[in-house]
Amino acid sequence: MEAALLGLLSIKPMYPYEIEKNVVEQDMRYWTEISISSIYKVLEKLEKKFLVDVNLSVTDSNKVKKTYTLTEKGGLELKNHITGIMSELEISIYQIDLALANLHILTPAEVNSVMNGYLTSIDARLTCYGELETYLLDHGCKIGNIHLARRRQHLIRAEREWALRFIHEYNAAHDYIPENEMGQGSGQRK
């Protein structure tokens, strides 16, 4: 979250509401864990670390407005973080890995049912990221933002290929015949 906020502030100084607006516009909640309440907390931490400066001003309605600016130290911290994460593959932890490790508690029919749901969710995400890519291209967005959408699509397509292969191999190993292929009753285990 710190790096994401520093990245936004590297574009221009912003106040928290403006940061939130950018988070929403860039669909950052799909690839960060930033919420409106965390923005304030993280900005306070960044200020204490001297990575951002705070400029106070008074609005027309006599309210104090805090505008955050990236410091030189913050820019260096951001650059070091970005070069670090772009230099090495990060292995993510996926919730489905927990499910695979405990697959034995499900029947073949249950496995097929939940995996079909998984495929449906994959297809929905592919559609979403495809629409996002189109939107970003149509609005002349930066190449990095466009590739956020493209990279997700590639990763999700690979996940879809894996899921289809898993279903096929799982069913072959269990001699499972899905209901719609049996003509009656539920799937069976031989």
Task: Give an overview in words.
It contains eight helices and two strands; from the N terminus they run αααββααααα. α6 (108-138) packs antiparallel against α7 (143-173). A two-stranded antiparallel ribbon has the order 1-2. The N and C termini lie far apart (50 Å). The chain has 190 residues and is mainly α.
Q: Helicity, in percent?
A: 55-70%
Numbering strands along the chain, what is their spatial order in the largest sheet? 1-2
Mean pLDDT: 89
What is the global morphology? elongated
> How far apart are the termini?
50 Å
- Radius of gyration (CA) equals 23 Å
Largest sheet: 2 strands, antiparallel
Helix segment count?
8
Count of beta strands = 2
Low-pLDDT residue intervals, each spanning 5 or more residues = 183-190
| Derived structural class | mainly alpha
> Helices and strands, in N-to-C order?
HHHEEHHHHH
Proportion in β-strands? 5-15%
